[in-house]
Amino acid sequence: MSNPTAAMIVIGDEILSGRTRDSNMHHLAGALTEVGIDLKEVRVVSDDHGAIIAAVQALSVAYTHVFTSGGIGPTHDDITADCIAAAFNREIGVRDDARQILAEHYARAGTELNDARLRMARIPDGAALIENSVSAAPGFVVENVHVMAGVPAVFEAMVASVLPGLTGGRPLISQTLRIDWGEGDIAGPLGVLAKEYPHLSMGSYPFQKDGIYGAHVVIRGSDPGMVEAAMDKLKAAFA
Amino acid sequence: MSNPTAAMIVIGDEILSGRTRDSNMHHLAGALTEVGIDLKEVRVVSDDHGAIIAAVQALSVAYTHVFTSGGIGPTHDDITADCIAAAFNREIGVRDDARQILAEHYARAGTELNDARLRMARIPDGAALIENSVSAAPGFVVENVHVMAGVPAVFEAMVASVLPGLTGGRPLISQTLRIDWGEGDIAGPLGVLAKEYPHLSMGSYPFQKDGIYGAHVVIRGSDPGMVEAAMDKLKAAFA
């Protein structure tokens, strides 16, 4: 049986303008690999209704799970919740359970729950909430789309609260060998090995450091014994 | 007149598995912003023929320029050139000018130009070559798609050789103000200001550091005077 699949949508002009370097993609990629969910595609889109809705609709039908990051804060440019509601043709409004979470959080902090903050309690009808152990304002799940915050600490906390509830697959095992040969000399033997093991994925990632040309060759697969056997042959070929 | 638009396709299982942290997206985003080309979308796809071809076809019709990174090396998992040829229904084969570049480079290095390395001279028919000042093997351009290497140093060299040949637009000017208020207190006045300046983009990027909640508010636009004026009002509102 093949693993569940996933896609991610990173929402934010600040990534596309080069102002901010996204780190959520790398975090989610590693976390999904650990639980055996295969991340197949990531799209980075701008803070634009049409772009967000199109990405959500396209990816939610193509993959088992979709994860979004960004655009669920209190300011005018936070439009993700409305876009998700529109993508699934659902109503959206301030929901009592989300309002209650915010009210308790801000009461503890001695901060006013004003209209802007209350925007973070706007949740599409029928969504389940995602706990935010960092700053309270919840994410939410509509159908197979998990809507999470863009701030890395909050995103990571939400991923940690979501993943245990998802059915994973066989985690991908990977082994890496550093080979100090030019990649053009690695390619031939590696290609032969890749044909011999069609159920494994073999990648070659070249580097050049202090005048040495080499590559990290990574062998990935869900069967640890098979990965091990292929790695032994790889080592023998380049010994 | 609005700026030219662009999309990027990052190709590689190693990004989606979390093994490698992509840096090319952030580099290209900054470089395009400087020359007034608006990066609208990025897709990260796996080393899969169907996925690469679908992304190339969808994005090349939707945007002025498309830039790809990854998958043009000598190993069996480098399939980008074949996918680009297939996406545009062109033939592909070793081309004399590209072979010549490789032959000279490897002759200087005293390295054999073997079959694997010769794969890097496979160029779709009618493509223009992109210079690679780092490691010789060229990128190429088919229609509006610029095909470049994934190794960051090579990718950056190719971007530097491509961008001067493209017609840019009005560079986006941005000014940033750090405001040490909770984002929920910034949101109201910022929303009013954003409505007053519909031609500017205003973004709020919250942070939490040493117990202080605040946000960096960024105002972007192509008219420096307008950005300046809006920033003055922003400062006055939060003074």
Helix/strand layout:
Two copies of one chain form a homodimer.
Chain A: E1 5-11, H1 13-16, H2 24-35, E2 38-45, H3 49-62, E3 65-69, H4 80-87, E4 92-94, H5 96-109, H6 115-118, E5 122-124, E6 128-130, E7 139-142, E8 145-148, H7 152-162, E9 173-179, H8 183-196, E10 201-209, E11 212-221, H9 224-237
Parallel strand pairs in A: 1-2, 1-3, 3-8
Antiparallel strand pairs in A: 4-5, 6-7, 7-8, 9-11, 10-11
Q: Keywords for this structure?
A:
homodimer; 239 residues; alpha/beta; Molybdenum Cofactor Biosythetic Enzyme, Chain A; 2 domains; six-stranded mixed sheet; 9 helices; 40% helix; MoaB/Mog-like_dom_sf (chains A, B); FLAD1_M (chains A, B)
Report on the architecture of this protein:
- The structure is a homodimer of 239-residue chains.
- With 239 residues, chain A is an alpha/beta fold.
- The first copy, chain A, folds into two domains: 5-165, Molybdenum Cofactor Biosythetic Enzyme, Chain A (3-Layer(aba) Sandwich), CATH 3.40.980.10; 173-237, Alpha-Beta Plaits, CATH 3.30.70.600.
- Chain A contains nine helices and eleven strands.
- The first copy, chain A, has helices at 13-16, 24-35, 49-62, 80-87, 96-109, 115-118, 152-162, 183-196, 224-237; strands at residues 5-11, 38-45, 65-69, 92-94, 122-124, 128-130, 139-142, 145-148, 173-179, 201-209, 212-221.
- A six-stranded mixed sheet of chain A has the order 2-1-3-8-7-6, with helices on both faces. In chain A, strands 9-11-10 form a three-stranded antiparallel sheet.
- In chain A, a hairpin with a 2-residue loop joins strand 10 (201-209) and strand 11.
- In chain A, helix 2 (24-35) runs parallel beside helix 7 and helix 3 crosses helix 4.
- The mean pLDDT of chain A is 95.
- At the A-B interface, helix 1, helix 2, strand 2, helix 6 and helix 8 of A face helix 1, helix 2, strand 2, helix 6 and helix 8 of B.
